[in-house]
Amino acid sequence: MKLKTFIWLTIFSLAMGFLESSVVVYLREIMYPAGFDFPLAFPAAKIAVTEIIREAATIIMLAGVGVMAGRNFTERFAAFIYSFAVWDLFYYLFLKAILGWPPSLLTWDILFLIPVSWTSPVICPVIVSLTMILLALIVFWFNKTTVVILQMKEWLILIAGSVIIILSFIWDFSMFVLSRYSFSTLLLPGGGDILTLCGAVYIPHSFNWILFGVGEAVILSAILVLYFRLSKGK
């Protein structure tokens, strides 16, 4: 990737981070005038649908700029995760600058709502973002002199680590729901309404640090495997 392209990719990601934080500022002013806290205040249906579509549009935009910035599939993937990570990091930095939130890196945040609530201390998505940047920079660096192609085993390890981390994000809410309803009940018609009702009273209790740590270790092992393979020129 050319330096000019990398700089503009970074600038775009910073701007997206501010755009995301500004939307959250507006939403919190409307829905949490006393300050954001759990349980969540669920908006009207049209606002909820708009928010879901907005989040999907954000991912599409980040993926789109990654496709335009990269010269091959692996570099495009690297550009996407780099842009995503920079966007996410500066989203929190801008929220801190504008709202003074989060008060600490251990403050709980809601990450996603689909298919269930993803929650974790802020430090967790920050760690994930830094890991994504590390992987992307390795790809960018070696792609200057060779065409970097991730091998199947590297993809599988990355995917496995990602799945484990996602499980750590949905673990607490899932345990909260399953302590009140059986899994079979959630599969019946109206199961989505149950999840919504649970989300309206859910307050994060404990984060599964072990699961998160295992996921991070798995991803870092994939990054090390890739780095040493590329360093040897294989």
- Overall helicity: over 70%
Q: Mind summarizing the main beta sheet?
A: 2 strands, antiparallel
Show unreliable segments.
none
Global structural class: mainly alpha
SSE succession: HHHEEHHHHH
Spatial order of strands in the largest sheet:
1-2
* Overall mean confidence score, pLDDT: 90
Distance between the termini: 20 Å
Number of helices: 8
Compute the number of structural domains.
Answer: 1
Global shape: globular
Strand content: under 5%
State the total count of DSSP E strands. Answer: 2
Radius of gyration: 19 Å
Short description:
This protein is mainly α and 234 residues long.
Structure description:
The protein is mainly α. The protein has one domain. The chain contains eight helices and two strands; from the N terminus they run αααββααααα. Strands 1-2 form a two-stranded antiparallel ribbon. A hairpin with a 5-residue loop joins β1 (108-112) and β2. α2 crosses α3 (73-99). The longest helix is centred in the N-terminal third of the chain and has 29 residues, at 3-31. The mean pLDDT is 90.
